[in-house]
What we know:
By secondary structure, the protein is mainly beta. The protein folds into 3 domains: about 1-25; about 35-130, Immunoglobulin-like; about 135-234, Sandwich (Immunoglobulin-like), CATH 2.60.40. It is built from 1 helix and 18 strands. The protein has one helix at about 1-25, and strands at about 35-45, 55-60, 65-70, 75-80, 80-85, 95, 105-115, 120-130, 135-140, 145, 150-155, 165-170, 170, 175, 180-185, 195-205, 215, 220-234. The strands form 2 sheets. It has a 15-stranded mixed beta sheet that branches. A 3-stranded antiparallel beta sheet has the order 9-11-15, with no helix packed on it. The radius of gyration is 26 Å and the shape is elongated. Residues about 1-35 have low confidence and may be disordered.
Amino acid sequence: xxxxxxxxxxxxxxxxxxxxxxxxxxxxxxxxxxxxxxxxxxxxxxxxxxxxxxxxxxxxxxxxxxxxxxxxxxxxxxxxxxxxxxxxxxxxxxxxxxxxxxxxxxxxxxxxxxxxxxxxxxxxxxxxxxxxxxxxxxxxxxxxxxxxxxxxxxxxxxxxxxxxxxxxxxxxxxxxxxxxxxxxxxxxxxxxxxxxxxxxxxxxxxxxxxxxxxxxxxxxxxxxxxxxxxxxxx
Length: 234
C-alpha cells in the first residue's frame, strides 16, 4: 500500500512537471524574436541647459502593437568618455543619463543590450559625433530688441554641423544647411514685451532622408550641440 501511494505521488509530481514544461513550450517564440526594434535618441552639449542632453527611446512592435522596452543596458563610449544611460521612471523604454550630455567634437559609440526573460540578447549599436560648440555673435545675452521687429541671428561657423535649427520660445526654423551662419527670425514671433529664449542647435545624423546610422534596430541616433541665450523685448 505504501509503495503504491508513493508511486502515485511520484507519478502526479512527474505529470505536473511535464505539464509545466509542455506549457512553457507552448508559449511560442520568445518575446522579441519576431519583434521589430526601433530606437531614437541623441547625445549633445547644450550650453545654457544644465546637464546637457543625452537620451534614448527604445521600443518594439509586434503583431501591430508597440511597447517600450525597459531594462536594457545602455552605454555610450567616447574617446575619453563613458556615459551610462538609465531607465527613466514611469516611461518604459526611455533612457537618460544622470551625468548629462557629451563633449563637442567627439565621436560616441552607442551600445544597447536587451535581455529577454529567457536569457536571449538583442544588441543594438550606433555611432554619432557631437558637433562643435556654438558661439552666437549677435544678439548677445541680455540684449534688448523691439517688439514686432525681425531679429537677425549671427553665429560663428559650427564645426561638424550637418544641419542647424534656430528657435525662439516655441518657434523653430526649418532644418538649415550645416554651413549656415545667419538667420532672420520674423518679427511676428516677438509679439509682446518680455524675455525670450533664443537658441541655435547643430545636428549630425538628423536628416531622415539618409540611411539610418543604427544597427540592430530601425531609427537613428543623432548628435547635437547648441546654445541658449535670453534677450528682452520692449
